[in-house]
Amino acid sequence: MLLAAPLAAEAQQVRGVPRIGVLLPSESSSFLTSPSSLREGLRELGYVEGQTILIEWRLAEGHNERLPELARELVARKVDVLVTSGALPTILAAKNATSTIPIVFAGASDPVGTGLVESLSHPGANVTGVSGQLVESEAKRLELLKGLGPRVSRVAYLWRPGPPSQGQSLMQLMVEEAESAARHLGLQLLPIETPLPINFDDAFARMRKARANALLVTPAQFYGDARERLAELALRDRMPTMFGNRLHVEVGGLMSYGVNYVDIYRRTATYVDKILKGAKPADLPVEQPTKFELVINLKTAKALGLTIPPSLLGRADQVIE
Hints:
Layout: H1 8-13, E1 19-24, H2 35-44, E2 54-59, H3 67-76, E3 81-85, H4 88-97, E4 103-108, E5 127-131, H5 134-146, E6 154-159, H6 168-185, E7 188-193, H7 200-209, E8 214-217, H8 221-224, H9 227-236, E9 241-243, H10 246-250, E10 255-259, H11 261-276, E11 292-297, H12 298-303, H13 310-313, E12 318-320
Parallel strand pairs: 1-2, 1-3, 3-4, 4-5, 6-7, 6-8, 8-9, 9-10, 11-12
Antiparallel strand pairs: 10-11
Helix pairs in contact: 2-11, 3-4, 5-6
């Protein structure tokens, strides 16, 4: 129901009502529950869906190759604003589909470095939104992993570079950030590259060969889609895990630390409101995330034979028991 679009016939009957297009990569990614907060944010601003605003959803169901076509569909529907997830392929699909319709991203990492905007204070062109700070958070995730105690010393780092147009520079930045943080923390980082199609059995075999005793997984859609499998394999190998999104922890991962996407989508609604009232994306500064959350799964900790230090538990925003 979350992603159900209004019937075309109904939409055609409502004249003069702003239409918002929402482009998402996957219902299994970090954007599963968060878009509902976009609706909540719009309601808080006085919009009534179906009466004073229309929302059309397009979901790629994990197939990034469909994103350009779905973006063009929304452009053809003449939406007034195009909202996208923070995943770079999603934003690029929207950006390539239109240079005139305002685009608002929810949780993009390093929007300046990836060329989405000219600067945070003056985005330029037709793209703006809320950033996700994925790169900067890698150091914090490693710090929290180390907080588990001496059991953690050799950390496997699961990542996958993509084509330059789909975030190769971003992923490389994240690896470099993690390597720098690991050196500072006295940890050994073991990058495990996973080319497509991802073979997780092979990846975990390489981790065992490298004698990894913990796992850090870079935030990415393709890992979110396989979150149950990742949790299963990590538990089998008795490996503590750290993720960038709480959805991994809800299905058996040990810990996650990252931005609160519910808050990001709610803040995205304010951009939509300002644009509908006449503001230009080029003049709306990119906001930085303000809410981060640490989630710990105590059931998984018990299965791993791991006692979470009270100092770490005390920092958790949510503990799953």
